[in-house]
Amino acid sequence: MNINWIRKQIPWIKNNKNKIYFDNAATTLKPKCVIDKISYYYTHLGINTHNTDSEFCFKVHEKIEIARKNIAKIINCSPQNICFVSGATEGLTMIAHGLAHHYKKAEILLNDFEHASNLLPWYHEKNHGFFTIKFIDVSKWFDEKRIIEAITKKTKIIALTLTSNVYGNIVNYSQLCAKIKKINKDIIIVLDATQYLAHGWIKQLKNIDFIVCSAHKFFGPFGIGFVYLKSNWIKKMQPLKYGGGMNEIITKKNFHPYNNIQKFEGGTLPLAQIIGWQEAIKFIDKIGIKNIFDYECELKKYFVKKLSTIKNLEIYNSHTPLPIIIFNYKGVNAQDFANWLGTKGIICRSGLSCAKLIKNVLKVDSFVRCSLSIYNTKKEIDYLYKIIKSYKKGDELKKIL
Ligand SMILES: Cc1ncc(COP(=O)(O)O)c(C=O)c1O
Known about the structure:
15% strand; alpha/beta; Aspartate Aminotransferase, domain 2; 7-stranded mixed beta sheet
């Protein structure tokens, strides 16, 4: 794999020569092919698909449907089951809203590793009289066995992230979903694949009801993502958005929504982003998702090996495979430390990174998170190591005070 070639594809790297970008779990940098495609849409096409009186509409429509097909490939499903949304947050809100109206008093299993976007939509529905929420006990660590143990006769929905945005784990989804459905085939499984899809595609859809993701987490544009809905849900579930593009008939009394995926795509879609997103997928395909995964695991191992030799550094997730690493420098406030690293050109993140319940597991109020991607290098990790090694008590306050 040619890391130099990959780095050359990312204009941000060239334009920010003295910076190291270690915040890829927040968003990845964008390759030129994605930026160019978005620009191409606005400079050559620029027309809304709803304008069926112009040839442009048909051209754009065709491109959107080709993109849908290319995007659907990453989870091995039919494009007919992919609904475009603004991202994982909207996707999970749509699912929680749709299921709430179906299963008013359903019990849902959640856990402390979830991102706010896979907690609050369910809380919101609960606060409006739907759902009861039960937390899986993951107090020791995230463990798939715990999920199985938590299932009771009351369990109706399990919503789960495949890769935590702070932990860097990978849930063995095909095995887990098969076990869940074996206990009760009617349990609805909602998978948040937002982080996972940056490192692997989904091959086995059997047993999964819903999948959500955001394109910007894996080299795509902001403001676009998808919800995969198993076919039965397309017919059964209520949409979140009502308006143009999702209705077949409107009378003075009522309306009929479409009975296909369009039903969930009310309003104007972010057309340029959809067209741009498929270029991100082509970019990944060119490198090979397995090559990406292998390289990232190597970076993680290198990072842990090197940085765990620093006496005062406490790493919380050394053993997980993906290159998301959370740590604290003993006795130093995480935000101050991350700010100090920022003054040295290292862009990372501090806090709880939207996974606020994880503090119940880790027993810390905040940490520094470094999350790496395919364009990061061992040399960059060496630089981080050198900087942290050079840290002297109080350094973090010098620029701040
Ligand atoms: C695991 C996970 N789920 C959901 C989200 C929400 O994604 P978005 O803000 O793009 O909707 C994120 C973003 O950090 C995430 O990491």
